[in-house]
Structures are given as C-alpha cells and as structure tokens.
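Posting this for the archive.
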Amino acid sequence: METMIEVKNLCKAYTQIKAIENINISLCRGDVFGLLGANGAGKSTTIECILGTKKQDSGTVSILGMNPQKERKKLFEQVGVQFQEANYQDKIMVSELCEITASLYNTCLNYNILLKQFGLSDKLKSFVSDLSGGQKQRLFIVLALIPNPKVVFLDELTTGLDTKARREVWRSLLELKAKGITIFLTSHFMDEVEALCNKIMILNKGKNIFCGTVQEAITASPCENFEDAYLWYIDEEDENESI
C-alpha cells in the first residue's frame, strides 16, 4: 500500500513543557485516521507540526513523500485542510469564497457539485456570515475538497450539525475513502470515530496512549463499548500520572 503520511518521533515543547512526545503515525492510501484526546492533549500541536505550520523540535514528517515545510506550495496542491474555527470576511458570498479558493489551485473540483453534495446548493448567493453554524461547517469541508486532494485534514468536522446532517457528512466522507482519499480527522464524537475511522490514536498530555483500531481499543480495555473504552484510557493514564 502507498504510504501517504509518515510521522516519526515527533516532539514539540513550549518553554520546557512537552506538548507532544515521540508521536509516530503511518497512513496509507484510503485510510481514515482519528486523532483523539481531551482539549489540551496535543491534537492541535500534532496537526500543526504535520502540516508544517509549526516547526517541531525533533522528528520527521512526510506527506505524499514531501516535506511540508520545504515543499509547501507543491504539497498543498494535493492536500485539503478544514479547521473548526475558520474566519472569513463578513460580506463575502458562498460562491465568491468558493471561486477564490478554486483560483488558488491549478486543478480543482467543480464546487457547484460539492455544494450540492453537502446540501448547500441553494446558498450560492448567501453571505457566509448569514449561514448557520452547521452550514458553515459543511462549507468549510467543501472548501477543503475543492483542490481534489489526495489527503484531507478535518478538525471537528461535524461540530454544530444535527444528527441527519452528521450522517450525510459521514456518507460523503466514506465515498471519499472509497475513492482512495486519505482522511486525517479529529473528533470528540465516538460514534463518528467508530463509523469512519479504520485507525485511531488517543493522546493524553502529549503522549500516545493507544494506537490501533477501534475494536483493538475496546478489546484491550475492560469496557464493552468504544466510548467507555476511550474514557477508560484517559482516566487510566491520569491515574498513573498521579501515582
């Protein structure tokens, strides 16, 4: 299988406080990977170092065989990124934002088709500021998919969506997986992780405390379901730290 993301011994500290320590991730074409952990666990720092927006203290990162810091322009022609908190000017229409995004890439998908796929085709002439929270979230996913990426990073992708909308997004992402797109996501919804991810990593205080499949996480815990297992891993680690 073709390796799409390779992270080895990634470390980053802020004023001697270790944000992440010896993180190792290897993802192949079509993998859906979930990076899990409580707020402050190190998820954002991990993603920022992988994307090259933050420089790691040590370790190496490769996306599509490229160094994200040294080959940024070439790499991001093939990588889509959606962040939970994205800020755009108030008076810009959905169509304008999609057009501007598409203009940044040499090749891209038809954003009208993507907007229809994510239930936003009737919002072309709406201002982004007038969209609901869920509509904005779906729009940000569309923007990440416009460059027709081989790898896409999604941060809390269904925050603010109702159950029906969340399921529609899941279905769209599983279609992307079937096409061979590698998806790297963060989520606080364990049902979402179970539905989408074939690999997961649980972080606690910057350390990898579990890496494998959802079923392996359940099997290695004393729990019967994944949500309880996730909480057990985090609580167990916290208890060990206090000993």
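The longest strand covers residues 3-14. The beta strands are 3-14, 17-28, 32-36, 58-63, 79-82, 151-155, 182-186, 199-204, 207-212.
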